[in-house]
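explain this.
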Amino acid sequence: MKKITTPLEKEEIEDLKVGDEVSLTGIIYTARDQAHKRLVEALRKKDKLPFDFKGAIIYYCGPTQTPKGRIIGSCGPTTSSRMDIFTPDLLKVGLKGMIGKGSRSETVRKAIKRYKAVYFLTYAGCGALLAEYIKGKRLVAYEDLGPEAIYAIKVKDFPLIVGVDSSGRSIYE
């Protein structure tokens, strides 16, 4: 198992290959469809983005309501292909990693290769288990989106598998 930390560095990304099991520690950002739409709209308007994308990882996740005494609710991955129309624009401004489930389009794989990024898979159907790897949570933007707001979450040893590596190779091929 490869251990990596955020923000992602070029050398770390290039060392990751399709199928590698990874343990991630650091800060990642949750964002789903509506948050992605707003991020790309902000880019097009040349507005300030709510966090620094350089070396950042976005987790395609909308956590459930936080139970009493817990840091976060269940937070499993959502289907990544729904973000495909937004992904190249975010990679262009420095996004280096994405976490979700399912395959990515050819356009996204080419953008991953072009911008030397990586797409990770995590365990679907295991949101309650994945919440155990989250050690902190902070609202970053778009609170009105409820569970689809952007949160910075601190993870320790978050389990991942490389789904698309920086050369554009996909585990689904």
Notes: The chain has one domain: 2-164.
